[in-house]
Amino acid sequence: MLVFTTGHREAIITRSTYITPLAELLVGHGANVQPGQVVGVSTSPGKEELARAIADAAYRRGAKYVDVVYFDPYVKHSRLLHAAEDTLGWVPPWLGQRMLDLGDLRSANISLSGPPAPGLMDDIAPAIAGKDRLPQIPESLQMVHAGYLNWTVGPGPTPAWAALVYPDLSPDAAYDKLWQELAHILRLDEPDPVAAWKTRSADLMARAVTLTSMQLDALHFRGPGTDLTVGLLPGSLWIAAAMTTADGIPFAPNLPSEEVFTTPDPTRTEGHVRATRPLDVAGTVIRGLTAKFTNGRIHDIQADSGADILAGRCAMDDGASRLGEVALVDGSGRIGPLGTVFYDTLLDENAASHIAVGAAYPDAVDAEGQKTMNRSTIHIDFMIGAPDVDVTGITSTGSEIPVLIGGEWQV
Length: 411
Known about the structure:
Strand content: 25-35%
Number of domains: 2
């Protein structure tokens, strides 16, 4: 039990209050685990209690088997310090085979986000750190894009993560506050969290239908440090909050999810952009990011820290330097208004509009567009939205339509 004093009132909050509801939300609404399914769980040390709660919830829902895999960043750190540099890109084949097998079995998959060891990689040269992409493996994207998995990603709080987010609080108070804010963000403070998410999802999906019907040719982002035009494909489809597997199982891929997104034209992004929030790439926090796009490719990547890491990822393959996603986030969600930077892509990307270099989502474009959408072995989101970044839609005739102004929808 964590006890701390805030002002004149004493708050007594235990993480056990939220662990079971969070596990049930991820299992039942997020991944929508089906009776008889195998369930893969990807996590890291420090999140054992939540991982076990997820396994318990999955078995109570009828899972056939729950396979929990922990990736230890400290072991990766040892590899980066001591292993031969020319071996750092090697990925054990059994890691990819596990994902292929999960896909073949039409499994569910639940991943827990949140930095397990903030700052651990700070003593590793960016050029070295960028060579080891684990725990990311290309087979995961392959199975997701094939529609073989009903999957979700949700936050897994740890004391180390809490200390990063709230450095001015005591360790206990920081950990408690992280659970409090996540409970609010995840709508666990609602009488029926699943019903609350269905209501929010319906609103986002209706917004996506409207944006698709507008048949925009491009989006223009303009704000401090940003003047960026992202071209769209004729068959770009806006989607939100919910997906369906190839076998017809609906699921919520991200919890929380406050975005509507689509697949852009990989060749038609132009201009310059400033990230409005830090982003974490494989344990390295990138701050103060700016970049330029010409003929669809990102270049001139600069940052106060970590630029080389992102530049290295954007050189991984031919599609790694092009956009695979553009997403809009309005100000009515629960993350942005908190004003908290979580240093976690899942949460921060749902606080602000964002773009992603790398692989596109085939669900967000029609069959013709899938022939030309971006393909890559990476997918890295970074946040470019804020209340002072306006988004304008551009039609095929060049007309401009306000879409998101001051964080509020105009359509």
